[in-house]
Design goal:
Blueprint: E1 2-9, E2 14-20, H1 22-32, H2 36-56, E3 63-70, E4 77-82, E5 86-91, H3 108-112, E6 116-123, E7 131-136, H4 143-154, E8 158-167, E9 170-181, H5 187-198, H6 203-209, H7 212-219, E10 226-227, E11 233-237, H8 243-250, H9 255-265, E12 268-271, E13 278-281, H10 283-287, E14 293-295, E15 302-305
Parallel strand pairs: 5-11
Antiparallel strand pairs: 1-2, 1-10, 1-11, 2-9, 3-4, 3-6, 4-5, 6-7, 8-9, 12-13, 14-15
Helix pairs in contact: 1-2
The structure holds zinc ion (2 copies).
Length: about 325
């Protein structure tokens, strides 16, 4: 099982959030048929989003979306997580094959690219507008980029460690930690933490040999770590896609186009880009969409659908330039 632990060290001066994501990252890699490099980028980003959720969110229904967009061949990686431990995500170019670096590590920074940005979007329940902030990428290695985001955008000084280790093409270890300096943390404690982090080495080497709480203890050596979690929070790869949402997306196609899909293929296969799930929508399901839509008479853009929030409002301008007029 994948899980998350929280703790404080240095008498409340340092907050520690740690996740073992081995199982969920293995599932994500399988769902997206990701190459090792793409899988490492995806795994680090999924883990990073789960850690950020614990730091940035308050309400159990809030979500955080973490997106890294660089100039590398991966084409971007995105993950979306909540305080409940559910996460989903994908990379644009899951099949990307890159040679490992000279030191043998996977070339995640090269895949993502070093020029670009890291964006964090908070969707606050129940009706807050999504709130987005972003900073420039540092290295495309994900952990450093998140640390810089936290420092610049949130004024949170922290160390971020993320790692995914493959053996024989399988995910053998994956996880991450954020060690965050809280207001009032004393300088000697922070100096010791910095020294611990610097001499720590590869996170996945430690995860292969010790439990997650053992790894937390090691990083907080000399800092009196107190665990806050009485029970570990279970983490899972979980998507919110459904037949209904897939049908909603199909509603944007004109009725003639949907008829053509049914005539040519006998239905429609919809693949969820978040989780890779394939759904077959039958002619009966697709036929149920029609009958309550209002479309632009000129360009067939969907203006309104019964039971949905209004897509285009009265007096707005359609994509083709025609003013929208909805019958009352
Ligand atoms: Zn999905
Ligand atoms: Zn139009």
């Amino acid at each position: 099982m994948s899980y998350l632990l929280r703790g404080v060290a240095a008498r409340g001066g340092i907050r520690v959030v740690a996740a073992d994501t081995t199982k969920l990252v293995a599932e994500a890699c399988a769902r997206h048929q990701a190459s090792l490099t793409a899988g490492a980028a995806l795994g680090r980003t999924l883990t990073g989003a789960l850690l950020l959720a614990q730091i940035l969110l308050k309400n159990s229904r809030d979500r955080v979306t973490l997106r890294l967009r660089g100039d590398g061949p991966l084409g971007g990686v995105i993950a979306d997580a909540g305080l409940d431990g559910a996460v989903r995500g994908y990379v644009v170019n899951a099949g990307l094959a890159l040679a490992p670096r000279v030191d043998g590590k996977l070339a995640v920074g090269q895949a993502i690219g070093r020029r670009g940005d890291i964006e964090v979007i908070r969707s606050l329940a129940p009706y807050g507008e999504p709130y987005s902030s972003s900073t420039s990428l540092v290295s495309g290695e994900v952990a450093e980029d998140i640390a810089m985001f936290l420092a610049q955008s949130e004024q949170i000084n922290s160390a971020v460690l993320l790692g995914v280790y493959f053996d024989g093409g399988m995910v053998r270890a994956s996880g991450g930690l954020v060690l965050q300096a809280l207001p009032g943390a004393d300088d000697a404690a922070l100096a010791l933490l910095e020294a611990n982090v610097r001499s720590f080495g590869q996170l996945t080497d430690h995860l292969l040999q010790a439990s997650l709480s053992g790894v937390m203890q090691e990083l907080c050596w000399g800092l009196d770590l107190q665990m806050l979690t009485d029970r570990a929070l279970p983490l899972e790869f979980s998507c919110r896609c459904s037949d209904e949402k897939a049908l909603d997306a199909l509603a944007y196609f004109a009725p003639e186009e949907r008829e053509r899909m049914i005539a040519e293929d006998g239905g429609v296969e919809v693949v969820c880009h978040w989780c890779g799930e394939r759904r077959w929508l039958s002619p009966e399901q697709i036929g149920g969409i029609t009958g309550n839509e209002i479309r632009c008479p000129d360009c067939r853009t969907l203006w309104y659908r019964q039971g949905q929030t209004t897509m285009i409002r009265e007096n707005e301008i359609c994509a083709c330039g025609r003013p929208v007029t909805l019958p009352s």
